[in-house]
Amino acid sequence: MIAFRDYDLLPTLQAALVEKGFVIPTEIQERVLPVLLAGRSVVGVAETGSGKTLSYALPMLHMLKGLELEGQRVTVDRQPRAAVIVPTRELGEQVSKVFKSLTHTTRLRVRTVLGGTTMEIAKRNVAGQFEVLVATPGRLAQLLDRGLVLLLDVRILVFDEADQMLDQGFLPVAERIVADCPAQRQMGLFSATVSPQVQKLMTRLFSGAEVIRTKGSHHVVPSLTTENREVPDGRRFPLLERLLVNRVEGGTLIFVNTRAQCDQLAEELETNGHPCAVYRGEMDKVERRKNLKAFRNGETALLVSTDLASRGLDLEHVGRVINYHLPQQMENYIHRVGRTARAGRAGLVINFVTQRDHLLVDRLGSVSPRQPRDGCDRGAR
Prior knowledge:
It contains 14 helices and 13 strands. It is of the alpha/beta class. Strands 3-4-2-5-6-1-7 form a seven-stranded parallel sheet. Helix 6 crosses helix 8.
């Protein structure tokens, strides 16, 4: 079995891994690290919670520190040598945190320019000299338009959680970011699923990259237990109350499909003595961040959300996911259940199933590692 110590990483990075207790790489890390360390571009497709961030952060920091040790220090303001493009501010902060946990010995500088912050903060963050930039695409495009940051010295460019970024307007922005980088830059793309939009990005910008798909990509992780509960007479809330009697370590993330359903369920929970927090689009960003922090810190045991919370958020330990309303797309389902059973931990998913959900539920056996125990459970358990 290969260990992190077997890779030709700088001693400072090896020391950081030992300090954090990282010994054995995950599958995506084991397969991606040699490719990036060899200077080649890569597309990595792996299930959520599999450790994709570390798989590109380590080679990136190894290369950047190596350049510095060779006497090639960063000497120009506002010109990073590496850039990571992320879909949301929350994910950007998480990625930055991973990098900074590895840079206290290398002394490499990580800056963020993220949507949801003011332009003044973004301008301050890219002032001076630094090595790594973590950015959301829209905010980075604004800074490039104003000449406030330059990508002329970027040696490696990574798109993380690409399947969450690919709305209709993203591909031109991605192409613009790539065009602003040197022609010989190294590139990485990481995603939990390969939607048609991700495939288009791979075809347009990653034609020469090595594609790595883990055995668990497009599947839920083996440490996840799935239960399917039939909703009697369409009455979801009494079923939910019976489940909430059993609290779980790490809290419960409850998914619905629309903002209206989110607000309605949250009101019903509060009215019936179940304190909860809401995380959805079109709400005050400060409030949304406050609610997420309360759930992450254990101050709130229940978080009610739309699919906004299904992708990218690294909630370290969610004990249970409840699909109060099942999504229509399998891709969204995989992202939702990926919020629990992360990094090898156990996790529980409970799906509320009505007649119209059976088409999706019948497909769950193809992505779930455990089969139903009886005729009531139509998906995997």
